[in-house]
Amino acid sequence: GITPVLNLTVSIQNSGENSYNTHVILTYPSALSYRRATLLQWDGRATVQCEGLDIKEGSAVHSSKCFISRPIFKSQAKVVFVATFDVDANSQVDRVVNISANATSGNEEHITTGSFALNSIPVRFGINILVKSAEDSTHYINFTSGSNDLRRPVHHTIQVENLGAREIPVSVTIRVPVKLVNTDIWSNTLGLKVPGCTVKTEDPTETDVLKKLKETQILNCSVAMCSVLSCSISVLKNRVPVIYNLTGEVSSAWLQQTQLESVRLVSSASLGFDTKQYIHRFTKSKTLINTEVQTHVEVIKVYDYKKEIIGGAAGGLLLLALITLGLYKAGFFKRGYKEMMEQQAGDADAGEDAAPPAEE
């Protein structure tokens, strides 16, 4: 189970005369080892003392003898106690454990009816396994807008670990989006195959995939055709990670139909195990046995500045022409020309006045 102990509640009542050397023999599988007995309910003065019985080496069954209020278990008295057993985490037992309790005494005469009880307990071993995205997975790529023939290398790495003591068989299911509508997401899917894993394809669960994609901006198996890898780990050993590498080149061809500038490409992985035999130690185990690998895909717009440069130059020339035309209509150039001519005439007159008289 989730805890490495098993508690067995035993109830014994003396419906007859005083009983001497009353004891209960507990028989249980060798995967259990007796630890202690704790009184829960008793009448008057009562004690419970247990000890292990000698067993043969390699025996599949162990036994313990528990004395009840030795030496005298009084008439009409009742005792309820809990026998606690340690569970060997590495033991291999059947899916059902049988534990028996047989009560007897040292009296010459005693009633045997109801003195034997057998309890069959279903066994589920506590485990601690997880799956996660490895750090070397590709987290970001980008493409230039308007280019449909670009490729970017992408790695989705998935890591499976066993953090518990028990080694168990595990199944791993990996889902990778491979096609959006009719356009391949990966230019080559050979790197998405893992040796030892079977591969099949699944259609998206959404009907209007492009509408859903624009709403969520998440490209996963709900909107894309997916490649589903089914893998088996016969024995997931403690602290020995199992790695699944999915590698390939993501194409830019599928991005045009999305009309999005940012999309998250999401692969997923989940673990499976025999829930009739094993139980995860943590109540929030769904977050531990399921994971996603996300790659942020961004479309970068490249601006053509030629139009801006040509437009700016043309606008500047037009503005200069308008300014020139305005100055011309305001007579700026006429006044400037008249002033210039008058200045030149004034300079000529001044030159004549300053000239020396001619010699006779």
Q: Tell me about the biggest sheet?
A: 8 strands, mixed
Order of helices and strands: EEEEEEEEEEEEEEEEEHEEEEEEHH
Total helical elements: 3
Total beta strands: 23
Shape: elongated
Low-confidence stretches: none
Instruction: State the end-to-end CA separation.
Output: 143 Å
Describe this structure in words.
By secondary structure, the chain is α+β, with helices and mostly antiparallel strands. The protein has three helices and 23 strands. The model has no long low-confidence stretch (mean pLDDT 86). 15% of the residues lie in helices and 46% in strands. The longest helix is centred in the last third of the chain and has 24 residues, at 306-329. It has helices at 209-216, 306-329, 332-353; strands at residues 5-13, 19-20, 23-29, 32-42, 48-52, 61-68, 72-73, 78-87, 96-104, 116-122, 125-127, 129-133, 140-144, 151-162, 168-180, 183-184, 198-202, 218-219, 225-236, 242-251, 262-272, 278-280, 290-300. The protein starts with a strand and ends in a 7-residue tail after the last helix. A hairpin with a 2-residue loop joins β15 (168-180) and β16 (183-184).
